[in-house]
Each structure stands twice: as structure tokens, then as C-alpha cells.
Write a structure and sequence with these properties.
Number of helices: 10
Radius of gyration: 20 Å
Structural class: alpha+beta
Strand content: 15-25%
Distance between the termini: 45 Å
Shape: elongated
Order of helices and strands: HEHEEHHEEEHEEHHHHH
Helix content: 25-40%
């Protein structure tokens, strides 16, 4: 999976290891549509850590280009569109957590996290969590990245029977229908009549996002029932709604999706206060 890299890509990764005293360099993978906003305003703390705090996931810059950007292929299963790599620099003493995604993370400094991952024989599946937003001043650059780099499903998934649970194999995923025919999963999606009361009763952004993702597992109608969420103050709710609407049929779904895209573009183009 990690062989056959173009020489120029290897040179880019190694060149990125040039260190600045007191500063650790990391890479954050995100959607290309957020690139201009990130360059102007930094990276929002939208991801949730193991302790419930909000922050940003990233990986240290490693000698291997593929290992540095190992999360691209897996993240593409959850984020439609093109992904880009955001290079950031953090103080060596910055508090972060580090560890394999399937294990409990350790609280260390940024410099210790970089050292811990570089010392591993197999750093696949490792992640660093910064429990705060990344400021625009800490963003070094945003660059394109090959969309097929890294692993998918599991770091050592090649040759294994794939997991076809609704979380690992969402509807619309590449070759998802063919895999579900070969390896059927018994649990069907819950009906809309059961999910809509849960959505209306949800009080936090996290609860709303959870129900929206489950609504997005099947083809739906009646997008007008979700229109009230287009003005929700949490950007994660609005972005999830825009993604889920692709699974809805009808003119109202298209109209609401276009409204959300326009709101996103307006927010990205709006000037920020100094």
C-alpha cells in the first residue's frame, strides 16, 4: 500500500522536515472548500476529542509522504469532494494528545508527540489531537494532496473481509452496493418516521448531527422538514445537513442544498475583523 511513491513526492516530504527550534510541524487534512477560510482565519475546533473537548486532529510531518498523509483515503469516505493538506506549526510545549485511534491517547507536548510517532516501526493509525483552534498565524500553507494516498477502513485492511456496518460502509460509498451484496449486513436503517421525532427532540448539535447522519443512510423525501436547520448556529450541523440532503429527492432538497452552499460561500468570503 505504501510503495511506488513518486520521487518528487518523497523529496517534498523530506524537505518538510527542516525544523525550526521550538516549533513542531503538523499536517491537518480537510476539504478543499475550506482552504481560503483557513488561510484567512485558521482552523476551527470542530472535532471532538476522547474527553469531549473540541479541537483539531493532525499528523506530524514524517520522512514518508504517504505516512504523513495516511488519513486522506480514509477521510474521503466521510468527506465528499477533494481534500487538501494544511501545514501548521505549533510551539514545542503545546499540550496535545497522541496515540492510535483505537486506543486511549496520552497527554504530551507537541514535540513529544512528534518524537513518539517518528520512533514507531508502524505509525499507521496514529493521530495527534490539539484541544483548541489553530490560528491563522500558525497555518504555514495549504497544498494539494493525492486523493488515493494512505489506507482505508483499517491500517492493515488489505486482504480482510470488509466491515459492512452502517458506520464503516455508508450509502453511496465507492463500490458499496457490490460489497453489500457479497457481505450482507443484517441491520436495516431505521425508518424516517422513527428518526424525525428524535431529530425534533435533539437539543445539542452533536445529537442533531447523529440523527442527520442516520437519515442520510437511505433515500428520503420531504426535505422541507429539515429546512429549520439551515439557520442553525453550529456550522457542523449546517455542513452535515448539506451532505445529507444529497440523499433526499425532490425540488425542495435541491433548493435547500443550494441555499446552504450559498450561505457557506458567503461566510467564506466575508472579511474578518482585525
Amino acid at each position: 500500500m505504501f510503495c511506488g511513491l513518486e520521487p518528487k513526492l518523497v523529496r517534498v516530504a523530506v524537505a518538510g522536515l527542516a525544523t525550526i527550534p521550538g516549533v513542531a510541524e503538523f499536517v491537518h487534512i480537510t476539504g478543499a472548500g475550506s482552504a481560503r477560510r483557513i488561510e484567512r482565519a485558521g482552523i476551527s475546533a470542530r472535532s471532538r476529542g476522547r474527553d469531549g473537548d473540541r479541537g483539531v486532529y493532525c499528523m506530524p510531518v514524517l520522512p514518508s509522504f504517504t505516512l504523513t498523509h495516511q488519513w486522506v483515503r480514509e477521510l474521503r469516505r466521510w468527506h465528499p469532494g477533494v481534500l487538501v493538506a494544511v501545514h501548521v506549526r505549533l510551539p514545542d510545549a503545546e499540550p496535545v494528545t497522541v496515540g492510535h485511534y483505537a486506543e486511549s491517547p496520552r497527554r504530551v507536548t507537541a514535540a513529544q508527540a512528534v518524537a513518539a510517532i517518528r520512533e514507531l516501526d508502524d505509525p499507521r493509525g496514529q493521530e495527534v489531537f490539539v484541544p483548541r483552534p489553530i490560528t491563522a498565524g500558525e497555518v504555514r500553507r495549504v497544498r494539494d494532496v493525492p486523493q488515493g494516498v494512505g489506507w482505508r477502513y483499517l491500517p492493515a485492511a488489505h486482504g480482510r473481509r470488509p466491515c459492512l456496518c452502517p458506520v464503516c460502509a455508508s450509502r453511496g460509498a465507492y463500490k458499496g452496493a457490490r460489497l453489500r451484496q457479497r457481505f450482507p449486513y443484517d441491520e436495516p436503517p431505521r425508518p424516517k418516521s422513527e428518526l424525525m421525532p428524535l431529530l425534533r427532540a435533539a437539543t445539542t448539535a452533536e445529537e442533531i448531527v447523529d440523527v442527520l447522519w442516520e437519515l442520510g443512510r437511505g433515500r428520503r423525501g420531504g426535505a422541507e422538514e429539515l429546512a429549520y436547520l439551515a439557520d442553525h448556529p453550529d456550522p457542523e450541523v449546517r455542513e452535515t445537513l448539506e451532505s445529507v440532503l444529497r440523499r433526499y429527492r425532490g425540488r425542495e432538497a435541491r433548493r435547500l442544498g443550494e441555499r446552504l452552499r450559498q450561505l457557506h460561500e458567503s461566510a467564506s468570503a466575508a472579511p474578518t475583523a482585525d
